[in-house]
Structure formats: C-alpha cells, structure tokens
Amino acid sequence: MESTQRSVTAELSGAPYTTRITSRGLELVADEPADHGGADLGMRPHEILLSALASCTAITVRMYADRKQWDIGPIRVTATMERKQEGREVETNIQLTVGISDAVPADQRERLLQIAGLCPVHRTLQSPITITKSLEA
Description:
By secondary structure, the protein is α+β, with helices and mostly antiparallel strands. It contains 3 helices and 5 strands. It has helices spanning 45-68, 106-116, 120-125, and strands at 9-11, 19-23, 26-30, 75-86, 89-100. The strands form 2 sheets. Strands 1-2-3 form a 3-stranded antiparallel sheet, with no helix packed on it. Strand 2 and strand 3 form a beta hairpin. Helix 1 crosses helix 2.
C-alpha cells in the first residue's frame, strides 16, 4: 500500500475564531460568521472540507477528460452537506452536483460522473479514518 503524508497547521491567536491555516507556504483563513461570534473573514471549517471535496472532484474530472482528449469546457462542482446531530451521534450526508456542458455527449457525461466519485478526497472520506491526538511539547 502506497503511503503519502500531508500536513496543515491551523493557528488561532487573535480574534475569537479567525484561524490562519498554512501548508507548503500557502495560507487560507477559517472563521465563523458574525452570528456565531466570528469576524466572518473566511470559510467555516465544514465549508473548507466541502471545498476540498468539490475542488478535488473538479480536478479529477478535468484530468480524466484531458487524458481522453475530450473537450468538455468548464466543470462546476457543488458540494452540499446536511448534518443531523442528536447528542454525540452525527449523521452526515453530502450531495455532489457535477456540472458539465449539455453539449458533451451523454456517454462521456455519464463516464465523467463515475470518475467524479474516484477523486482522492472522495475516497478518503468514504474510507475508514483514524484520528490521533497529542499535545505539542
């Protein structure tokens, strides 16, 4: 089994929830909207999770289409999450909507939808995940 490692650091040091996230020298901001006590300077953490899935899906579809030399035009992926929580139990449903031009032949559109489900983030979210925690020394 091939092993890959990614690392992201989140630092919250000022405003109530505004968090700077860095990886590979790149930065983004996570926050909560004002009605939840934040400054609304960035996406909510669940929105960042959904953005990872939507962008990975679009990239995967584009890579496949490019490999097949299919001219499919722009790709639009919308990820919508519904969470239901009762006590500690959480049920999460994510809906992916993949937008590809109607001018693309139906068989190609159907194949691209299948490929959309093979993006690495999609596969990660559908596989067992183990999270361990430790305090920094």
